[in-house]
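Q: Got one fold?
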Amino acid sequence: MFISAASQLAGSLWAQDPGVTPNQDGLPGLTVVKGIVGALLTWGLVACVAGLVVSVIIWALGHQQGNYSAASGGKSGVLVSAGGALLIGGANAIIAFFSGVGAGI
């Protein structure tokens, strides 16, 4: 009897929705933070382009000179730069997806 009453009480406590949702006016300076994050996205994409260019050059020179270690490092750099650009470019969509999944839990 006590266990079923305790489980019902625990179930009712866990089922409560606190009603907290994200809002745009909770703290001052949100537009500044958004601007900073947008600038960081731009810097990240520029760094990915620079990394891709340098990696392609290393890959080509390493292959041309028969230095397969450098060529392999250049290939890895190309993949890392492309992956970084993919993640940075899709950051908003990735966060929106997981935020939607989390809201459905």
In short: The helical segments are 2-14, 30-64, 68-89, 91-103. The longest helix spans residues 30-64. The mean pLDDT is 89. The chain has four helices and no strands.
